[in-house]
Design a protein that fits this description.
A hairpin with a 5-residue loop joins strand 9 and strand 10. The protein has about 230 residues and is of the alpha/beta class. It is elongated. The strands form 3 sheets. The protein has a 5-stranded mixed sheet, with no helix packed on it. The chain has a 3-stranded parallel sheet with strand order 3-4-8, covered by helices on one side. A 3-stranded antiparallel sheet has the order 5-7-6, with helices on both faces. The protein is built from 5 helices and 11 strands, in the order H-E-E-E-H-E-E-H-H-E-E-H-E-E-E-E.
Length: about 230
């Protein structure tokens, strides 16, 4: 899981950006002109996961490029209406173990149970982190994050009735997530390559990923992005 942004933010703000961060060189490969870019880190995709990764990288002072086929706030995470499940226990008692049970069961016992345990255990922390970034969750009368009932969620390992576990921002949670994380990525100057289509990963002989090849969808130009492995 990515490191939390809360502590390193002030330090990252002190990092001086090198001059010419947008400088591009060119080379010829097989008769094609290739535009070369070099960054500390490359993120492919600007949905919820990609934007969180990009925000975490630039928040720690790494020169980061995010390659996306569409403008970040139009990524498909925007279609998520329901909310985010996490055992915050704002509406009823809850436990991340009950959440994990529901997730394993909902996957028909085919899911990676180690990954499910990790996700469910940290889900409340991640939701509070998004709140700290400014995500406008709906609220209870007491001011807590509102959680709604959602399909497949139960209490006490399926024996305690319906769980109210889904943290929501009205009916546009995905929209709120994208705008919040896009703002966090821009806060520390993440560079976005919008309408670029990543076609291949650049791998070393020993299996390390060193970057990617992408095509600009506007003009068809070929771009080679290098990053530290």
């Amino acid at each position: 899981m990515l490191s939390r942004l809360s502590a390193p933010l002030s330090r990252a703000a002190q990092v001086a950006r090198p001059s010419g961060v947008r400088a591009v060189s060119t080379s010829k490969i097989g008769g094609y002109e290739v535009f070369d870019h070099s960054y500390d880190a490359i993120v492919i995709g600007a949905g919820g996961a990609g934007l969180r990764a990009a925000a975490g990288l630039v928040g720690h002072g790494l020169k980061t490029a995010c390659i996306t086929k569409v403008f970040p706030t139009r990524s498909h995470t925007v279609a998520a209406q329901g909310g985010i499940n996490g055992a915050l226990a704002n509406m009823t008692e809850d436990d991340w173990r009950w959440h994990a049970y529901d997730t394993v069961k909902g996957a028909d016992w085919l899911g990676d149970q180690d990954a499910i345990q990790h996700m469910c255990r940290l889900a409340p922390e991640v939701i509070l982190e998004l709140e700290s970034f400014g995500l406008p969750f709906s609220r209870t009368p007491e001011g807590k994050i509102y959680q709604r009932a959602f399909g497949g969620q139960s209490l006490k390992f399926g024996k305690g009735g319906q769980a109210y576990r889904c943290a929501a921002a009205a009916d546009r949670t995905g929209h709120a997530i994208l705008h919040t994380l896009y703002g966090m990525a821009l806060k520390f100057d993440c560079l976005f390559f919008v309408e670029y289509f990543a076609t291949d990963l650049i791998m070393s002989e020993d299996g390390r990923c060193l970057g990617c090849i992408a095509i600009c969808m506007e003009d068809g130009s070929v771009h080679r992005f290098a990053a530290h492995s």
